[in-house]
Write a structure and sequence with these properties.
The protein has one domain. It has 110 residues and is mainly α. Helix 2 packs antiparallel against helix 3. It is 75% helix and 4% strand. Strands 1-2 form a two-stranded antiparallel sheet. It contains three helices and two strands; from the N terminus they run ααββα. It is rod-shaped and about 70 Å long.
C-alpha cells in the first residue's frame, strides 16, 4: 500500500472538503478519537449501573436500610444515577470539544 502524500500547496482543509484520501484519513482519525471517548464514558456508566444490582444482591441487608423513610436502593438510584449521567455527559461534551479544537489546530498547522 503506497503512502498517501499531499502536495505541499494544498491545505488539509481543502483535502477534507474535497474528500480526498488524505482528507478521509483526517476525518477517520477525528471520528475514531470521538468514538473512543464515547465508548469510555459508556463503559464507566455501565459499570456503575451494573454494580448497583450486584451490590444489593451480594449484600441484601443494604436493601432494607432506610434513610429518612426512603429505601437505600431508591435513594442511590435517584440520588447518584442522574448526577453520574449529568457528569458523564458534561465530561464527554468537553472532551469532544477539546478533540475537535485539537483537530482544527492540527489541520490549520499542516
Amino acid at each position: 500500500m503506497a503512502a498517501a502524500t499531499r502536495p505541499p500547496n494544498r491545505p488539509p482543509t481543502r483535502e477534507i472538503d474535497e474528500q480526498t484520501d488524505i482528507g478521509e484519513v483526517y476525518m477517520r482519525s477525528l471520528l475514531r478519537a470521538q468514538l473512543r471517548r464515547g465508548l469510555t464514558v459508556l463503559a464507566v456508566v455501565a459499570v456503575f449501573l451494573a454494580a448497583l444490582p450486584v451490590l444489593f444482591t451480594v449484600e441484601p441487608r443494604l436493601a432494607s436500610v432506610r434513610i429518612l423513610t426512603v429505601p437505600l436502593p431508591w435513594l442511590l438510584l435517584g440520588g447518584s444515577v442522574y448526577p453520574l449521567l449529568l457528569a458523564a455527559s458534561w465530561w464527554l461534551v468537553r472532551a469532544a470539544e477539546r478533540t475537535e479544537r485539537d483537530f482544527a489546530e492540527l489541520v490549520e498547522r499542516d
